[in-house]
Fold this sequence. Notes:
Elements: E1 9-14, H1 23-37, E2 41-46, E3 59-61, H2 85-95, H3 101-113, E4 122-126, H4 131-138, E5 143-146, H5 151-161, H6 165-174, H7 177-186, E6 191-193, H8 196-206, E7 213-215, E8 237-241, H9 251-262, E9 268-272, H10 280-288, E10 294-297, H11 302-311, E11 314-317, H12 326-333, E12 338-341, H13 346-350, E13 358-360, H14 365-377, H15 379-396, H16 399-421
Parallel strand pairs: 1-2, 1-4, 2-3, 4-5, 5-6, 6-7, 8-9, 8-11, 9-10, 11-12, 12-13
Helix pairs in contact: 1-16, 2-3, 3-4, 5-6, 9-10, 9-14, 12-15
Amino acid sequence: xxxxxxxxxxxxxxxxxxxxxxxxxxxxxxxxxxxxxxxxxxxxxxxxxxxxxxxxxxxxxxxxxxxxxxxxxxxxxxxxxxxxxxxxxxxxxxxxxxxxxxxxxxxxxxxxxxxxxxxxxxxxxxxxxxxxxxxxxxxxxxxxxxxxxxxxxxxxxxxxxxxxxxxxxxxxxxxxxxxxxxxxxxxxxxxxxxxxxxxxxxxxxxxxxxxxxxxxxxxxxxxxxxxxxxxxxxxxxxxxxxxxxxxxxxxxxxxxxxxxxxxxxxxxxxxxxxxxxxxxxxxxxxxxxxxxxxxxxxxxxxxxxxxxxxxxxxxxxxxxxxxxxxxxxxxxxxxxxxxxxxxxxxxxxxxxxxxxxxxxxxxxxxxxxxxxxxxxxxxxxxxxxxxxxxxxxxxxxxxxxxxxxxxxxxxxxxxxxxxxxx
Length: 422
């Protein structure tokens, strides 16, 4: 990686970027900071819930109808809330049962950026993949597209786990926006993804030429996510992160594993995420009698998350699929031994089972319980795996490395754009 002094002006787009609603918000916050640290100018264009950024990074807020906002997600906006044709398009798309945020945000970003072509060198779109991105491309903007993983994977897993015909129908309608994303992805001259596993899925599901997909892993700050001295690990205490209660995250299987283990030993589970009373996780907890040993923690600082990792004996990522998994490397960076499935990119990220993590089969609560039991029963191996897991993170995953490699992609986009224009 060659670090150059030529500063770039980057418009970084994220249709929802708050760190507590998923890994994309973490990605935008830390990548933009690392790019500024390298001397580049970054402005983030974001939709609600808005990103939380370094003070040096300007945020351009692009308000929406906030159809999916708490405390009333899926609320129906009134006609007098429409301010323009994009609001009307967002509402009408939602009325058909489709997730309309990416489409509407991309059009708002197009409208905002049209008169600002001279102020930026390129656009970096963080997986919006809406029609507005194509409009910007047709108007001559160089664009780098990040796809963490294709949302078609989420769609497939949600449909596989739907329990009724009505639920399957609703999922099909909601995920119909992925057809738009596929069409936009195919037209992007350069796509950046976060793992080789995700690259393969993007090529297969979106039909993007693999030669146009370039892998740049995400990172973590090892000086922030680190072991905290003086905090004792609580026996039988597990910690996991669940940014969304969807089938792909595999929380159901972790809850079932905890229920199995609870019959033989003391168990506690802390879920970093927000509990929703009507969610699958809440219903599963009640059905399994786990309400007294599972607690949710949400809206806390990174420092508190680090402390939660230091209090637990194991971190668990039970996902059926991950394009990368920031929670996995954040936990490993804290020195806590990690139990993870082999879903998607997790083996690529976490390393070798028994050396830097404990790997197990996805979608199998018996296998997950067995792996957790074995890890809990061998404290010396657990400590070794925790230490080597942190070293793996230090060696491979940092936001500075991510930023340097992303800048290489920016320059390749600009070279291609100039060559095409010439």
